[in-house]
Design brief:
- By secondary structure, the protein is α/β, with parallel strands linked by helices.
- 34% of the residues lie in helices and 24% in strands.
- It has a single domain, classed as Spore Coat Polysaccharide Biosynthesis Protein SpsA, Chain A.
- It is built from 11 helices and 13 strands.
- The structure holds uridine 5'-triphosphate (UTP).
Length: 292
């Protein structure tokens, strides 16, 4: 198995859960403290050696493209002022990996977004990182997923265990054999009611996909919400592992935030800020008073 080095980050969704904030601004550009959500995601990809990154973008995502480009006038002004600290912050996103762009041509679903990456990924396995899912910095999740892909040859999804009362918000898996943190997946069920969910394992926004998954996506009819769903393609491979090598899950136990969900976004902001040296002490003291 060749080591995957390319990553696809779909950011073409409409972000309707965050309206009106996302009417004219991509939800992936919402800040967590002082850094846009998407920068955390790109930093994670680069940290684990996925240096070639493709953004699947859509209409009105210019702010996102500009964020990863140089800002000459601003940089010149900061240089003149000798403000190296801020200059470094402005330049950091520009120096992250090699970023490429493709337009999805309409928000027709996550599966559709990923299929537009075909000419970038070619016949190699690749990582997918959802542009609004933030994983704690020290987790090594993506590294572990790549290791499992190389050992099993399967596509790999990241799983978290959630309470039964929350499983209806997620794609859920029917587990087969379990070996430590690795689960053989037999099937996927999209957003099941707690009574019929085959497990409490929920799929989160990190994947290592075999290239054949793109062929399966091409043959799909629109699924839930009238969209081409990645989960539907993964389910086909999971039910018949001869197709595209099957699917396994890696169970993640660290911190993660779905920054596309309002409550999760607020929690993420507080948790990240409370850990910072410059904000944490004052914020934590204030929080204690506030909850009283
Ligand atoms: P979400 O399921 O969070 O959808 O997509 P969304 O449309 O952006 O948000 P809501 O539910 O309307 O608030 C997960 C990721 O997949 C991307 C999104 O940009 C997000 O990063 N996506 C989704 C696409 O790139 N294209 C699509 O057609 C759908």
């Amino acid at each position: 198995m060749k080591k995957p080095t390319k990553a696809v980050i779909p950011v073409a969704g409409l972000g309707t859960r965050f309206l009106p904030a996302t009417k004219a601004m991509p939800k992936e550009m919402l800040p967590l403290v002082d850094k846009p959500v998407i920068q955390y995601v790109v930093e994670e990809a680069v940290r684990y050696g996925f240096e070639d990154i493709l953004f699947v973008t859509g209409r009105d995502k210019y702010a996102l493209e500009n964020h990863f480009d140089s800002a000459e006038a601003l940089e010149a002004r900061l240089e003149e002022r000798g403000d190296d600290e801020k200059l470094e912050k402005v330049q950091a996103p520009t120096n992250l990996g090699r970023i490429h762009y493709v337009r999805q041509g309409g928000a027709k679903g996550l599966g559709h977004a990923i299929a537009t990456a075909r000419s970038f990924t070619g016949d190699e396995a690749f990582a997918v990182l959802l542009g609004d899912d933030v994983i704690e910095e020290t987790s090594h999740l993506l590294e572990r997923m790549r290791e499992v892909h190389m050992a099993t040859g399967a596509s790999v999804v990241a799983l978290v265990e959630v309470p039964s009362s929350e499983i209806h918000k997620y794609g859920c898996v029917k587990p087969g054999s379990i070996d430590g943190d690795v689960i053989q997946i037999e099937d996927f069920v999209e957003k099941p009611k707690a009574e019929v969910a085959p497990s409490n394992y929920a799929v989160i926004g990190r994947y290592i996909l075999r290239p054949e998954i793109l062929d399966i996506i091409d043959g799909l009819e629109p699924g839930a919400g009238g969209e081409i769903q990645l989960t539907d393609a993964l389910a086909i491979s999971a039910r018949d592992p001869k197709l595209a090598g099957g699917v396994v899950g890696v169970v993640f136990k660290g911190e993660r935030y779905d920054a596309g969900d309002k409550l999760e976004y607020i929690k993420a902001t507080i948790r990240l800020a409370s850990k910072r040296d410059d904000l944490g002490p004052e914020l934590n003291a204030w929080l204690k008073e506030f909850v009283k």
